[in-house]
């Protein structure tokens, strides 16, 4: 290795983040940054780390895809019987992290997660590619499987069972919405003197905006 891990570093100098310039509504500010990430043609701009914890407080994290963002929160989809589904059933507190490294930006979000209405999940399921819908039926997510061939055979059987586009949504599959209680916007700055602005919910439509030290 030409450099040690300790020597790996990058100076941030693309932009600044000031309280006077951000939207008083953090969901609208998120949309501004999210649209900037899309306009910059970043790979998977809707990729986010989802952190959960079980009833004992043991943490878990993985990357999932944001599929909707509205004034009510952030929506993602999964198998309700997966590891994250079981953890959210035990402890609905969760956190999200978006990292748009090319823009030297990061957004942290914390809040409570709940399942969305089945009709909402069904509406999204119908928009998924055929292979993704079959995959949702084929996968017993997070369960141990002996080999890849078992998965491929199950998928092939479902392809034959549903030759047309009428593929049913699995009962154990659907969406979650994280209703944010805190959002932090991070902009990288020179000398690691980063800008950090945090919104904390003070009521249904009221947010407190604070600057944090880097």
Keywords:
214 residues, alpha+beta, nine-stranded antiparallel sheet, 5 helices, globular
What can you see in these coordinates?
With 214 residues, this protein is of the alpha+beta class. The chain contains five helices and nine strands. It has helices at 26-39, 83-90, 118-125, 130-138, 148-161, and strands at residues 47-53, 59-65, 68-70, 73-79, 93-100, 105-115, 173-187, 195-203, 206-212. Strands 1, 2, 3, 4, 5, 6, 7, 8 and 9 form a nine-stranded antiparallel beta sheet that branches. Helix 4 (130-138) packs across helix 5 (148-161). The two termini are 30 Å apart.
Q: What is the H/E string?
A: HEEEEHEEHHHEEE
Please state the oligomeric state of the protein chains shown. Answer: single chain
Proportion of residues in β-strands: 25-35%
Unreliable residue stretches: none
């Amino acid at each position: 290795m030409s450099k040690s891990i300790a020597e790996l570093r990058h100076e941030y100098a693309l932009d600044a983040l000031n309280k006077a310039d951000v939207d008083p509504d953090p969901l609208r500010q998120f949309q501004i940054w999210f649209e900037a990430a899309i306009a910059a043609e970043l790979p998977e701009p809707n990729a986010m780390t989802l952190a959960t914890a079980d009833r004992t407080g043991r943490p878990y994290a993985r990357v999932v895809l944001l599929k909707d963002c509205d004034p009510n929160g952030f929506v993602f989809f999964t198998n309700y019987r997966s590891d994250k589904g079981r953890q959210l059933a035990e402890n609905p507190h969760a956190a999200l992290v978006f990292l748009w490294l090319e823009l030297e930006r990061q957004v942290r979000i914390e809040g409570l997660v709940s399942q969305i209405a089945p009709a909402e999940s069904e509406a999204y399921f119908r928009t998924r590619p055929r292979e993704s819908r079959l995959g949702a039926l084929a996968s017993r997510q997070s369960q141990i499987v002996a080999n890849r061939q078992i998965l491929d055979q199950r998928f092939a059987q479902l392809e034959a069972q549903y030759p047309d586009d009428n593929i049913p949504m699995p009962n154990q599959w659907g969406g979650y919405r994280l209703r944010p209680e805190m959002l932090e916007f991070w902009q990288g700055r020179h000398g690691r003197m980063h800008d950090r602005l945090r919104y904390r919910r003070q009521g249904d439509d009221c947010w407190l905006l604070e600057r944090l030290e880097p």
